[in-house]
Amino acid sequence: MHIFDPTAPMAPTTMHVRTVADLPASVRFVTTPTSTLTIGAAPWRHARRLAQMPVFSGPCIYVLAGDEIRIGKSTGLAARLRDHRRTMPMPRIDQTFVVASPGFGADAITALEAILTQAARKAGVMPVVGALLKPPSLDSIRDHDVMHWLRELPFLLLASGCTLFDPDFAPQIDRAMESDAPRDEYRVPIGSGAVREGWRRDFPADLLDHPATRHFVLERGALQARASVNGQWTVLRAGSLLTASPETSEQVCIARKRKRLRELGLLDPAGVFGRLNRDIAVPSLTNGGRLASGTNIPASAWRAL
């Protein structure tokens, strides 16, 4: 069982942050003399420049950061980033962070992806997109290596500008909302009322009719879904069609969510689809698109009404 505490103290160490000739100054590399890890950091528009560096040509872990966080693994970073450019995994990507080590193998990066994703969700600094993963079983030597890298990663990531595990960067509840003054339900910070994962059947009662609420439709062939968005709230509307069969889903966790919706009586049969019979709050338009289609689609696939 992997027990990873990203907030555990670390002995003082020296971090080296450097740039490379012929690369934009915004592309940085972070190392420390006590670790084999190398962190590359770059704005999303320069991420392909990281992928061209020999240090990132093998197995690696990457973090995509915008309004949300996506953690992934790759043994071919250039191709993986091209895939993400064709089908964005979240509405906006600002920064890219890549982690590599000569000791990484396919089993190690699979374990690191799963453990880091779980830890990032628990830390709550930013919402995390992507499937819930189970770390694979490793032999004792590889397990020791993975835990060693995990102890080093939070501090190297922070030195590179990735605040994923630093609680100082977590959203704070507005103190005015803790008083007796009326609350603005549409400004609920992440982790304090807005949906972070899965779905919820409860949300502000007048959200759907609020004048600031925006309404969207998703149309992909016969698949149609509707959503309403206000602040941190996104509501997938009753009547939306969701792919029905697990075989139509590229993501196991999405198929499980649809199965759970059917078990709760929230998803009715509708030919090759399931029809949502109740409004439900979901984390984002991107997440709602995944739930409807069973795969990654960008938020831009939703058309404003």
Automatic annotation (TrEMBL):
Lineage: superkingdom: Bacteria
Protein name, as recorded: GIY-YIG nuclease family protein
